[in-house]
Amino acid sequence: MKTKNFWAALATPMMIATLLLAGTPSVTANDQLSAAPAAVKIDNFSFGPQTVTVPVGATVTWTNADDIPHTAVSTEGVFKSKVMDTDEKFSYTFTKAGTYAYYCTIHPKMTGQIVVQ
Question: Any alpha helices (H) in 1-117, and if so which ranges?
Fold first, then answer.
């Protein structure tokens, strides 16, 4: 009986020490953000939101909700959509940090930017 009590008394502190040393898995804000794709809505001759901030590895999808065609084209040539008619979409996955300005080639006053952190 004394042996059982000894191991039982020792088991509890050992389990606590093991749990404390093991730690808990951590999830960073970037891990959570990368799981959720970002969306840009094209409507009324504008990109909304005009600035989107995403982590590296995130995919941004532009959807044309306007009743006329639009594009989403990087000013630096990083990405280029085809002409999107109503309800058509374009997606791009950002693999490097930076700020990516873009515009509509049909309506050059329509501008936006993607900030990748």
Answer: 2-22, 29-35
- Rounded to the nearest angstrom, the gap between the alpha carbon of residue 102 and the centroid of all alpha carbons in its chain is 18
| Overall residue count recorded for the chain in this entry | 117
Q: Which one is predicted more confidently, 93 or 13?
A: 93
- Whole-model pTM? 0.70
**In 3-state terms, what secondary structure has residue 109?**
coil
The reported pLDDT for the residue numbered 36 is 67
CATH homologous superfamily for 29-116?
Cupredoxins -  blue copper proteins (2.60.40.420)
Locate the domains of the chain by residue range: 29-116
The residue among 92, 39, 90, 48 whose CA lies nearest residue 69 is 90
Q: Do β-strands 46-48 and 98-103 pair in parallel, antiparallel, or remain unpaired?
A: unpaired
- Alpha-helical segments (H) within 23-90: 29-35
